[in-house]
């Protein structure tokens, strides 16, 4: 099983709707990173969370890290076609000197 | 201004061939990485280098040999390519090899082995 589980694996929403993507770990996370990937492009860094309960926002995207630092959610408000892509969470895991990634969530925005 | 660049962007080759992928970063970072993303989109680390020294080698076959001529470059050479090597390979860099350092990724190299 994956060390980081993302859900859902794919998501299709109507433009203008809100959506949430989750990233869950069985271990304490020392840092949680959200990236977005579009075809033909690399991973674009969105934001990083380190403290329990931390919340960050960038434009219409908000990410939270729970108090136990084992789960993060990414919330998009009033989705737009430009939000379409694959969202990946990556984490500094306990005892690891590397980033471990979830399997990604493919987001499609229907006009 | 490209922060992390990779060449080539696409690579189609025959089984058994040897190929190289180049990576360069102009961010002044000390640490560079190679990741492999398979057809199911799982992204997994292969190697990390800090100040030109190998730090992480995630049980990658020794057909894969990274080379870091200087801190700004980390190239990946693959010998005797196999069908299972087909994937997207991403290079990344971070300021240091410590927790809390954001990794910045290149655009990826799509390798197809026929």
Could you walk me through the main structural features you see in this protein, from its secondary elements to its overall organization?
- The complex is a heterodimer of chains A (111) and B (114).
- Chain A has no helices and 11 strands.
- Chain A is an all-beta fold.
- In chain A, strands 2, 4, 5, 9, 10 and 11 form a 6-stranded mixed β-sheet that branches.
- The mean pLDDT of chain A is 90.
- Chain B has 114 residues and is mostly beta strands.
- In chain B, strands 2, 4, 5, 6, 9, 10 and 11 form a 7-stranded mixed β-sheet that branches. In chain B, strands 1-3-8-7 form a 4-stranded antiparallel β-sheet, with no helix packed on it.
- In chain B, strand 4 and strand 5 form a beta hairpin.
- Chain B starts with a strand and ends with a strand.
- Chain B contains no helices and 11 strands.
- At the A-B interface, strand 4, strand 5, strand 9 and strand 10 of A face strand 5 and strand 10 of B.
Task: Give the arrangement of secondary structure elements.
The complex is a heterodimer of chains A (111) and B (114).
Chain A: E1 4-7, E2 10-14, E3 19-25, E4 29-37, E5 43-49, E6 55-58, E7 61-65, E8 71-76, E9 85-93, E10 99-101, E11 105-110
Parallel strand pairs in A: 2-11
Antiparallel strand pairs in A: 1-3, 3-8, 4-5, 4-9, 6-7, 7-8, 9-10, 9-11
Chain B: E1 4-7, E2 10-13, E3 19-25, E4 31-37, E5 43-50, E6 53-57, E7 64-70, E8 73-78, E9 87-94, E10 104-105, E11 109-113
Parallel strand pairs in B: 2-11
Antiparallel strand pairs in B: 1-3, 3-8, 4-5, 4-9, 5-6, 7-8, 9-10, 9-11
